[in-house]
């Protein structure tokens, strides 16, 4: 007498394990399907028709389409995923740095260029330029350039963005007002 035995149903614990295994496989299948679909849209090397063809193939024949896509383009799929993760991490790091530091301070080179422009326009004398350059090179330049550009050159005239008139050049103070922001 030969009787068919259904091992999974003879032992309820094995039946539960079998159900969990199928459920896990189904969830993993949907995760893989959606990752393939996202990768199709993420890939910049493919044109619109190629993307449409892969998408139709994956949707119409999902098991075969996903299998062929993973075999044919799986290595590049991982590279694109890593590139996106790196770009997101760099953007996050940049945002954190900017937020933590606040307004980023200009470099010494930027300050020297700004001072050179001010000297060439006639806003500061050569002596003021020399002293300001020494401050920038010693590490105190940021506060000087911000305060000097914010204060008027003459106490009798309002501040203006234009170059001072020749008669105002004689009224220009000869000392540099330096305030430290440390």
Number of helices: 8
Major pleated sheet: none
Strand residues, percent = under 5%
Query: In sequence order, what are the helices and strands, one letter per element?
Result: HHHHHHHH
Q: CA-to-CA gap between the ends?
A: 95 Å
Oligomer: single chain
Number of strands: 0
On the 0 to 100 scale, the average pLDDT is 76
* Rg measurement, Å: 35 Å
Low-confidence stretches: 143-147, 149-182
Approximate helicity band: over 70%
What coarse outline follows from CA principal-axis ratios? elongated
Structural class: mainly alpha
Describe this structure in words.
The chain has 182 residues and is mainly alpha-helical. The protein contains 8 helices and no strands. Helix 5 runs antiparallel to helix 6 and helix 6 packs across helix 7 (141-150). The relative contact order is 0.06.
What's the short version?
The protein has 182 residues and is an all-alpha fold. The protein is built from eight helices and no strands.
Summary keywords:
mainly alpha, single chain, disordered C terminus, 182 residues, 8 helices, elongated
Topology of this structure?
Elements: H1 7-10, H2 12-42, H3 48-60, H4 62-101, H5 108-121, H6 126-138, H7 141-150, H8 166-169
């Amino acid at each position: 007498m030969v009787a068919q035995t259904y091992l999974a149903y003879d032992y309820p614990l094995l039946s539960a394990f079998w159900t969990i295994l199928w459920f896990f496989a189904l969830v993993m299948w949907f995760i893989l399907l959606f990752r393939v679909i996202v990768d199709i849209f993420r890939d910049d090397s493919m044109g619109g028709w190629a993307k449409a063809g892969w998408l139709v193939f994956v949707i119409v024949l999902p098991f075969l389409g996903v299998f062929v896509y993973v075999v044919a383009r799986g290595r590049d799929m991982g590279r694109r995923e890593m590139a996106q993760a790196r770009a997101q991490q760099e953007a996050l790091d940049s945002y954190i740095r900017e937020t933590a530091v606040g307004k980023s301070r200009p470099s010494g080179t930027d300050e020297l260029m700004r001072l050179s422009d001010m000297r060439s326009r006639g806003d500061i004398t050569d002596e003021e330029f020399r002293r300001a350059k020494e401050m920038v090179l010693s590490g105190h330049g940021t506060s000087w350039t911000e305060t000097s550009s914010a204060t008027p050159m003459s106490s009798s005239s309002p501040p203006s963005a234009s170059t001072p008139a020749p008669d105002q050049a004689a009224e220009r103070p000869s000392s540099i007002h330096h305030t430290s922001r440390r």
